[in-house]
Hints:
By secondary structure, the protein is an alpha/beta fold. It contains 8 helices and 12 strands.
Amino acid sequence: MTETKRILVIEDDESISDIISYSLRKEGFFVQCAFTGKDAYSLMENMQPNLILLDVMLPDTNGFDICKKTVQDFPHIPIIMLTARNDIIDKILGLELGADDYITKPFDIRELLTRVKVALRRVHSLTTTETFIKINEYIKIDSSSRTVYKGNEEVKIKPKEYELLLLLAEHKNRVFSREEILNYVWDINYDGDFRTVDVHVQRLRKKLDIESLSSIIETVFGIGYKMKGLQ
């Protein structure tokens, strides 16, 4: 039997929350709603959602703070941010904090449902590949639990950092342009520059590189990045 996916809707506008939750339930999802940041944290612990729909503007906090904390505490949960603002800086900030997608109000509910399904499908595909992927003698990925190990210690990385690392690890020695990485990892029509990719690569290097070794992610100047194969 297929597990019913659990979705947490964090939205303080009750009319919007009702529309979203009704539409998701019609699609067979189990849905719970939170109207404040405090309620959201409580539900996250008890519900363990498969995906979060997160409004940026909340009465007691903002969605960016919730996104940051959620990525730290529950890095495996994909987040789609909702906002009434169409500012590219907000969009970039949400993605760099670890959100998987970003949709601006007012939105067509059919588009929202599609994005939810795409995000869940992407997570599923990432967790059904080969269980362990060895990057080098020190670093490996356990794709069944979406965890990364440096030696015997787990390294905390954000969802998009994980997906970027997995993409490169599954295609060692292949050069990816920044545009290709955005298309594969973020799956969005990106309107800004490619700084997001560079920032995520820098974060991965900081967390995973060994001082005595060259970086696991190599910069191919003028093109993009690649991961070197095992030596």
